[in-house]
Each structure stands twice: as C-alpha cells, then as structure tokens.
C-alpha cells in the first residue's frame, strides 16, 4: 500500500531576502522576461532557459529556500510582484486622503522599489489615457429663497424642492450645457473623450474582405508560378545530369571491356613467353 505522504504535493520553502534581491536583479537585467512578449529573437524556449538559469542562481544561496523547478521560481516572482502592487496601492490611497496625517505606515524596501520599476504603472494607478466624465454644478438663485409669510403655496413648494443642488453630467462632449449661474471645472476641456470609431457598413466590410482575398489569391498564384518555374528548371538540370552520368557509365563500361580484352590477350600469350620447365 502506497504511503499517503507520497501523494501530497510538495510545497517549496520560502525564500530569503538575499534570494529576493538576486531575483529582482536578474529580472532587471532581463526585461524581456518581465514583459513575456515573445518574438523572433525571444521564444518560449528562451524564457524557459532563463528561468532555469535563475533557479540555479537562487538554489546556490546557502541557507535559502529551495525550489524544485523553474515553474516554482516563476510563481515566486509573480507573488513578489503581487505583494509590491498591493503595498503601492495602499500607499497611493493613503496619500490621496484628505485631512493630513503622518507618513504612511506601509513602506517599500530596496528590493520592492526595484520590482516597482519593473511593474507597469497602469496596473497600480490605472491608465492615464482613460479620462473620467466631466461634472458641472448648477446652483439656481431661487433655491436660496425661503417663504417669508409662513404660508405654503405651489411656488413655495417648488422653491423648497429646488434646495438640492442640480448635478449635471456632461454626456455630450463638445456641447455646452445650458444652465444659469453655471460654474465649470477648469480642466473640463482636457477631459474630452476620444470620438468612437464609426462602424463600417456590411457592404464596405464585404468589399474590404474581397480585396484582401484577391490580394491573397494573387500572392498564392505568384508563389505557385515561382515554384513551378523552380521545379521545371530543377527537372531540366536533373535530366542533364542523368545524361552525363549515363554517358560516363557507358564510357567506363567500354574501358572495362577493352581492359578485359587486353588481359585476355595477355593470358593467351603467356604460355609462349614462359614455357613450362
């Protein structure tokens, strides 16, 4: 019966600060491994070799955490990035609070600051190219008027209902919102959203698809034509080479035949040259 302990998944031990420093320095020197964007010069096999190289570096540290394979090293790097992003997000939230206060309780050490330079800013603080909608506040002068005679009429009810400030969202960028005593934000123009792309009609899309298909067909036809000329020329060269080989073999056979005839004549003359004793 198999030991149940053997079926348990082995967990890698935690790494030390020295090993974290080695990992961060290694990733800083191999930025292509950080981005994981494969290309003609950086393939999946190249990334695997780098992870294996990093594995051999960190397991050579005496007294450090042990890793059994390069997948555990990659998982360790992912956990380190996740921790740094979480800490930096907490620091950003603390600094954006109002009311002052002391310095943030969460800080980054030297290794974590190095990792922070390798992490895209958009994953922590968001994409700066994506702007929020502009907000305009409209304050009506009649909202501050209260009834003086204590009576409640239709106009008083209307006035009381307008005590709440009217908040108007700028949903149509490029057009001004008509309102009385409107106070606009100074950066409203900088919050303009990019115009959405116009959706192409089915006819235009079909026409583009046909053009692409025709171009691909022309390229395939040209490729077939080039291959046909290549194989035709190759066949001619093979036929010429075969003829030369045939002529060579025929000439060789003729020489061997003549050599045999000469040897036969020599053998016939040997008894006359050297008579038996």
From TrEMBL:
Superkingdom field: Eukaryota
InterPro entries documented for this protein? Myb_DNA-bind_5 (IPR028002)
* A family per Pfam: Myb_DNA-bind_5
**UniProt keyword terms in alphabetical order:** Transcription, Transcription regulation
Compositionally biased region (Polar residues): 173-185
Myb/SANT-like DNA-binding domain location is 11-88
Question: Key word Transcription regulation present in the record?
Answer: yes
Does the keyword Cell membrane feature in the UniProt annotation? no
Q: Where is this region: Disordered?
A: 172-198
Q: What does this protein do?
A: Involved in transvection phenomena (= synapsis-dependent gene expression), where the synaptic pairing of chromosomes carrying genes with which zeste interacts influences the expression of these genes. Zeste binds to DNA and stimulates transcription from a nearby promoter.
Subunit-level organization: Self-associates forming complexes of several hundred monomers.
Q: What's this protein's name?
A: Regulatory protein zeste
Q: Organism source for this protein?
A: Brassicogethes aeneus (Rape pollen beetle)
Organism ancestry: Eukaryota, Metazoa, Ecdysozoa, Arthropoda, Hexapoda
């Amino acid at each position: 019966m198999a030991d149940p302990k053997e079926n348990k998944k082995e967990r890698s031990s935690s790494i030390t600060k020295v090993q974290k420093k080695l990992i961060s320095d290694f990733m800083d020197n191999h930025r292509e491994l950080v981005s994981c964007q494969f290309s003609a010069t950086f393939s999946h096999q190249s990334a695997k070799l780098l992870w294996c190289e990093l594995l051999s570096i960190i397991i050579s540290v005496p007294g450090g955490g042990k890793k059994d394979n390069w997948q555990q090293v990659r998982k360790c790097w992912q956990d380190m990035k996740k921790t740094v992003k979480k800490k930096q997000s907490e620091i950003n939230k603390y600094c954006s609070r109002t009311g002052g206060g002391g310095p943030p309780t969460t800080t980054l050490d030297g290794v974590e600051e190095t990792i922070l330079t390798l992490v895209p800013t958009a994953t922590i603080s968001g994409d700066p190219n994506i702007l929020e909608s502009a907000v305009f506040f409209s304050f009506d002068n009649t909202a501050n008027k209260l009834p003086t005679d204590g009576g409640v009429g239709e106009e008083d009810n209307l006035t009381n209902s307008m005590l709440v400030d009217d908040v108007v969202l700028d949903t149509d960028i490029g057009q001004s919102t008509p309102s009385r005593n409107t106070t606009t934000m100074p950066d409203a123009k900088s919050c303009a959203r990019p115009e959405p792309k116009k959706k192409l009609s089915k006819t235009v899309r079909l026409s583009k698809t046909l053009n692409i298909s025709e171009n691909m067909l022309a390229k395939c036809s040209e490729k077939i034509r080039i291959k046909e000329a290549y194989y035709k020329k190759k066949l001619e060269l093979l036929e010429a080479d075969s003829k030369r080989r045939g002529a060579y073999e025929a000439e060789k056979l003729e020489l061997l035949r003549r050599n045999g005839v000469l040897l036969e004549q020599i053998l016939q003359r040997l008894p006359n040259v050297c008579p038996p004793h």
